[in-house]
Amino acid sequence: MTAHDPEGWGEFRRYAHALGVGLDDRQLAQFQEYLALLREWNRRFNLTALTEPRAIVFKHFLDSLTLTRVVDWERQRSLIDVGSGAGFPGVPLAIAFPHLEVLLLDSQAKRVRFCARVAAALGLERVQTLHARAEEAAHDPRWRERFDVAAARAVAELPILVEWCLPFVRVGGVFVAMKGPKVDPEVAAAQRAIERLGGGSPRIDRFPLPGTDVERALVVVPKCGSTPPAYPRRGGARKRPL
Predict the structure, then answer these.
(1) Residue 42 and residue 138: Cα distance in Å, rounded?
(2) What homologous superfamily does CATH list for 9-239?
(3) For the whole model, what pTM was predicted?
(4) CB 146 within 8 A of CB 170
(5) Is residue 239 very low, low, confident or very high in pLDDT (cuts 50, 70, 90)?
């Protein structure tokens, strides 16, 4: 961070490059406009607890791009961001990889409106938004087992997330849960659900988030078999995790 770059855009760009994400000037401008829109809307709708620009750039934008550690996005075509909130990780990934078809799903209308506004303002033509609950949308044939990747960030415990997210993933795709470093008990608790829902053996990628003092973990669950039609249970995952 410098006096001429208080948000740390130069540092952000370098860290993104280290992740294998090359951002051109247009893409950097899209991130800058995203930041401006988020700060503007956040004054009215409390979309994120982070308000300091540099914190947003690193703890939201760069954090979203860390999925490149476990997913080769050049080989993927579609992503569903479950519980997208203010668009993380879906919007940063859509900026970085313009070929991606991205669906941002959230159950709160204000968040969906914001994400739609961002997609329009940034010219992200392959980004769609969906106002729905995951446990209902996953039974819609338009979305069920249609995505190469499902991602979720800070939404729920892993046994619940697995039931919400794996049904969206095609066989051969992956579900990635973005978590903090102390995720092992969640992974252990989710094993039964993973097996029942068609998932394979999970793996954990732990790392420090560049530019911050934060530790992160990505839990990667491959989709090895089709999810039984009964799942996800409508309203049942949170009340009675598998």
Answers:
(1) 29
(2) Vaccinia Virus protein VP39 (3.40.50.150)
(3) 0.95
(4) yes
(5) low
